[in-house]
L-ornithine N(alpha)-acyltransferase
Amino acid sequence: MHGYSAQFFDLSPLRVFDRPVLELGRFAIDPQRGNSDIFRLAWGVVTQLVDQNNVSFLFGCSSFAGTQPQTHSAGFRYLCRNDHIAPHSWRPVFHGGYRLAQALEDHKDGGAPNLPPLLQAYLGLGGKVSDHAVIDPDLGTTLLFTGLNVAQVPQKRAQRLRAIFAAH
């Protein structure tokens, strides 16, 4: 597999999917101009692509600011404690990086988890993350592999996403 995520994660476990998989690239909205309607419309378009191409799995990277994973330990603890770690069947293989479980050992009060909006959207649809974070030195970010098994999206949410696209 090729693409941005493959630069940082071993994606060979994704071969478990027998239908197409789709990598979603960067998704950025100018905070001064953006609003949730743009975000919802984009997810509606993605839903249309999934339906038209019989996509079984969406994936990409969720970016956290900076190259010190420890600064995001509150978010990583939240992900570990709330069953957001991907199943072994499609989780990227660990070859290095920061294991999220290390955040569980950090007993400092890291405050509330500050998760990127795109990751929050994935989680709301049933998405999961890798058990480790890696660094993108070019962009100065800490990355988590993020995946969504389309078959596990709650039916009501999928219907709402389809309705968003149909309305535009």
